[in-house]
Amino acid sequence: MAVYNSSHVNLLIGGYDLTNVSTKLEDNITDPLTETTPFGTTAQEVSKVGMKKYELTGHDGWYDDASTSINAAMVDLAASERVLMLLYTGAIAGAVGEIHHVICAGGLLTIGYKRGFTVGEYTRATFETAISGVQHECYQANAYQQVSGVTGDTKALYYDMGASCANGGYAYMCCTQLNLGAYTNLKIEFQSSSDHITFTTATGGTFTNLTVVGGEKLTVPGSQTINRYLCAKWTFQTGSGSPTATFVVAFKPI
Fold first, then answer.
1. Which CATH number does the domain housing residue 93 bear?
2. 76 by DSSP, 3-state: which?
3. Are 223 and 118 in contact (CB under 8 A)?
4. What are the backbone angles phi and psi of residue 109, rounded to the nearest 5°?
5. How far apart are CA 104 and CA 107, in angstroms?
6. Nearest to 13 by CA among 175, 178, 189
7. CA distance 154 to 158
8. Longest dimension (CA), the chain
């Protein structure tokens, strides 16, 4: 059995990495019950309504007004939905072929954002969020680390889903650091392989070309087979210089 600690966790919301301003996280998945007890019975009856709910409710941390940090993220979320990626083991490349799980969701919205001021203490910040839509337990496709070079992939450190998927699914991506240099954009692709040697980009697995940091959820068509071994590919397009990016990709099979 593998066990992990707080140094392994990453909290990403769109293009924001809130890891270094977070001291506590609790996520909550509920599948509510409703009472269905009719007249004439002597014991309570309940039934599931079939509408699951996901919340990130137990966040505690530090206030930070940097453009890449928590205050900007919460103000941004108040106006629009974002992608959530909660990585249990995000920056660990690990042994080749390991299975790493990620909580991913599109449609993240802020419920509440609170800043606390106390004499003799640093200013704290806490928030609660909810998902408009579905939360997925996904498979990580690459380590959450900085990459460099005009083009490359992570197939040498591939991840393993344990089995192939014949019905498509959902691909998630968060890019939290992007230095294009003199290039115009960054293309990130989600790839899979049946033999962990030859990898191909999934149909529907190319994310929108990035010019700034951000996150995205893609729907991989149900006709698309995703093989068990996963990796990510990146290409800085049209330009010159020494670009870098920090991103992670994950996949949820259907």
1. 2.30.110
2. helix
3. no
4. -130, 150
5. 10
6. 175
7. 6
8. 77
Q: How far apart are CA 222 and CA 170, in angstroms?
A: 10
Its domain, for residue 241, covers 141-253
Q: In whole angstroms, give the CA distance from residue 90 to residue 93.
A: 8
In a domain, 249, yes or no: yes
- Residue 118, token pair as written in the block: 């106390």
In the chain, DSSP finds a helix count (H) and a strand count (E) of 1, 21
What is the tens place of the pLDDT at every residue in 99-157?
A: 788 999 988 888 889 999 999 999 999 998 888 888 899 999 999 999 999 999 999 98
158 & 80 share domain: no
Backbone φ and ψ of 226, nearest 5°: -110, 115
Task: Please tell me whether residues 145 and 97 are part of one structural domain.
Answer: no
The 10s digit of each residue's pLDDT in 114-125 is 999 999 999 999
Q: Which residues contact 58 (CB under 8 A, 6 or more apart)?
A: 24, 25, 26, 27, 28
- Domain count of the chain? 2
Last residue of a domain, one of 100, 115, 136: 136
* 244: confidence class by pLDDT, cuts 50, 70, 90: very high
Tens of pLDDT, residue by residue over 42-72, are: 999 999 888 888 888 889 999 999 999 999 9
